[in-house]
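Interim report to the steering committee. The following record documents the input for Transcription elongation factor GreA (157 residues).
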Amino acid sequence: MQKIPMTAGGLTRLEDELRRLKSEDRPAVIRAIAEARSHGDLSENAEYHAARERQSFIEGRILELEDLISSAEVIDPASLSGDTVKFGAHVQLVDEETEKESLYQIVGAHEADIKQARISISSPLAKALIGKSVGDSVSVPAPGGDRTYEVLSVTYK
């Protein structure tokens, strides 16, 4: 089985979602199915079909989360150090064309969230950054053409 790199925070979020699905969402959908069944003819019962579809989604997500959690290899970025970009690094970049600065953390694919500046290790930007040091420039393919960034800092928190 292939291990999936993940931060401790990412694993905690997945475990919390799994706990919520099992303890809240699954029982709620079972109650909804029972309620819909009490309304009679199931062949034309939209509530019943919607609840069954929701149940199917929940059960699938539970299986997916259990698989992810069992395959997780937790890497603590705080235990890492150095000046090259690796998994878990917080990387400050400057776009060489616009001079706009950005700060990203490189995390596992299942915990990436661009709104919180966490990018997947498998994203084009992260792939270009791995192994780079402060002062290095990287070129990243983008829909509007290649973007070039300079690494300003690399930290592990």
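Strands lie at 4-6, 72-74, 90-95, 101-107, 118-120, 137-140, 147-155. The committee is asked to note this result when reviewing the revised timeline.
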